[in-house]
Amino acid sequence: MSVCTLTRTRCCCCTALECCSTTMAAASLSVDLDFTRRLPKIELHAHLTGSISRACLHDIWMSQKRQQPDLAIEDPLVAIPSGKVDYDVQTFFPLFSSYIYKLCNDVASIEFSTTAVLHEFQSDGVVYLELRTTPRAIAEHNISKDDYVRTVTHLLTAHNEDTSNTMRVFLILSVDRRNTLAEADEVIDLAIKYRSSGVVGVDLCGNPAKGDVRTFTTAFSRAKAVGLNITVHFAETAASATDQELHTLLSWQPDRLGHVIHVKDEFRAMIEARNIAVELCLSCNVHAKLITGTYSDHHFGMWRHSSVPVVLCTDDVGVFCSPLSAEYHLAATNFDLDRRQLKQLAERAISCIFMGSTEGGRLRNIYSTWEV
Ligand SMILES: CNc1ncnc2c1ncn2[C@@H]1O[C@H](COP(=O)(O)O)[C@@H](O)[C@H]1O
After folding, report:
1. Which atom of ligand 1 is nearest to the CA of 101?
2. C-beta of residue 311 within 8 angstroms of C-beta of residue 279
3. Where are the domains of the chain?
4. CATH class, range 31-368
5. How many beta carbons lie within 10 A of that of residue 33, not counting itself?
6. How does pLDDT run across 160-197, given as a tens digit for each residue?
7. Dihedral sign (CA 266, 271, 273, 279)
8. Which one of 96, 231, 290 would you pick to mutate in the ligand 1 pocket, going by the greatest count of ligand atoms within 8 A of its CB?
9. Which residue puts its alpha carbon closest to atom 11 of ligand 1?
10. Residues with beta carbon inside 6 Å of ligand 1?
11. What gap in Å lies between CA 63 and CA 287, rounded to an integer?
């Protein structure tokens, strides 16, 4: 093994200079959207309902309108105008509770939208997806939370069993901050029940202005005790970043943290000491004004120099309209990353997946043969 004088990196696969010059030539090629689409990507923080495109919501609306001409729900293309992405904490959460959940409220619309979401992630070059969703009971259609989870897991299993698909997908069940402890326990029970059908972990999400996370400590402790993986929305707003809240969330021993915006040095140090992976969502944080400033001010710039794995994610591509390939492109242009660095960023996410060794092996194979 020798040290290349150009990059001062070690080459382990061939004659030092040749290897480095090839790598450098590839790295110096510009990063464009064609490259970031082709790049195999791992998506670990995507909310199912937030990932439904406007076009898909419109198709659902059209189909419902045909069946019920007096349908009292506005056309999604009017309710969520094309190009509108400036949803902030006040307007974002009601979009689901007051609108999208009313539209996607039967088995047909859940199946149609979930299938479309899987197709869109795969078409964008995602090779491994952990989709998350909050179990939802829909009384008017006689759908229980169990029915909802079963419906989604069936679709995911069918997707994974189709060998023509290049992406594998697994499910994380979300507890909403507005839930009671009994409701959170129900989510954990469902995660346990559907583990053999592809549920790999549990999440805490929802409006960061609501709820007291201490309510859920016993539920998440139970999830941990049975070996479910845990990811939580962490310090998304100043209100959800009190010392008490962050200590409570860390006491659940989460495997990954989402957003991680308002963290003091003390918490940064704890996250690094425990090597907890961070799921960062550039466009969501900029459009929703969860950060001050723009892309180049995003805390990705800080975390990427830390020791913890950093995973770029979309959060809600249906709302913020930036697919994962666009997020990689934004990272490249705002933080001056070349092709080789983007590949390393994408590949590092393998160490953070909840599905474990079989998938890890498949993903390592994909990256080992993929040339920048
Ligand atoms: C801005 N970032 C975010 N922060 C917190 N929670 C979020 C979120 N984005 C989405 N959700 C949560 O995911 C639900 C929609 O998907 P599912 O119905 O679960 O598939 C939203 O109602 C919200 O609770």
Report:
1. 18
2. yes
3. 1-30, 31-368
4. alpha beta
5. 12
6. 999 999 999 999 999 999 999 999 999 999 999 999 99
7. negative
8. 96
9. 206
10. 47-50, 92, 96, 133-134, 174, 176, 205-206, 233, 236, 284, 288, 315-316
11. 31
- Annotate 149-178 with b (16+ C-beta within 10 A) or e (fewer): bbebbebbeebeeeeeeebbbbbbbbbbbe
Of the listed 236, 245, 279, 347, which one is catalytic?
236
What ligand 1 atom has the least distance to the C-alpha of 96? Answer: 22
Question: Closest Cα to residue 240, out of 41, 31, 93?
Answer: 93
186 is catalytic: no
- How far is the C-alpha of 309 from the C-alpha of 303, rounded, in Å? 9
Rounded to an integer, what distance in angstroms lies between the CA atom of residue 7 and that of residue 11? Answer: 10
* Residue 231, pLDDT above cutoff 60: yes
Which amino acid residue places its CA nearest to atom 6 of ligand 1? Answer: 206
What residues pair up with 98 in beta bridges, in sequence order? none
CB 335 within 8 A of CB 304: yes
The structure's pTM equals 0.94
Q: Is the pLDDT of residue 338 over 60?
A: yes
Element (H, E) at 45: strand 41-47
Calculate helix-pair angle for 107-123, 54-67, nearest 10 degrees: 150
97 Cβ contact list (under 8 Å, min separation 6):
none
ipTM of the shown complex: 0.99
Amino acid 232 reads V
In the Cβ-directed half-sphere of 319, how many Cα atoms lie within 13 Å?
27
pLDDT (mean) for 261-271: 97
Q: Tell me the CA–centroid distance for residue 50 and ligand 1, in Å.
A: 6
Structure-block tokens of residue 87: 């949803």
Where does 177-251 show beta strands of DSSP type E? 199-205, 229-234
118 CB-near residues (< 8 Å, 6+ apart): 129, 131, 155, 156, 159, 167, 169
Query: How many residues are present in the chain?
Result: 372
CB 45 within 8 A of CB 315: yes
Mean pLDDT score, 36-47: 98
Residue nearest to atom 22 of ligand 1 (CA): 96
Place of tokens 């495109």: 53
Ligand 1 centre from 372 Cα, in Å? 34
